[in-house]
Amino acid sequence: MKQLIAQQVQFILLMTISGMSLMAGYDALRLIRWWIPHGKVMIAIEDLLYWTVVSVPVFYLFLVYHDGVIRWYGVVAVFSGIVLYEYAFSRPIRQRLTAVLDPWKRKWQRRIRRARQKCHEKMKKKARKWQKAIAKKKARVYNK
Fold this sequence. Notes:
The protein is an all-alpha fold. The protein is built from three helices and no strands.
């Protein structure tokens, strides 16, 4: 009996820790999104892929401890780990990281903006050359 109770306590702790690790991974994804802004569709796709992929290890824990039967207290433990990580660790860490990385982010975005502008200017020049070449060919064809 003691062994069964110890195993259930271990399962609940593992599920809580897995919930916390899921949110730590999601924080990494949020940091990438903060650094490189994404559109709503891309965010939805990333979220769908992330939560689909990370559900596999959680289900594996259910498989190992309960032969794949999803127990309500395991799900509650995962969600409590998510909430615990979000309020205890994630928010303070994100605030500090934002304060530290914000100047670098601005520099990075300026560099990207400049590179885009240069690329856009080069593409405009090439487009003008192509337009002139096409206009010359049209003139040759129609003048004959």
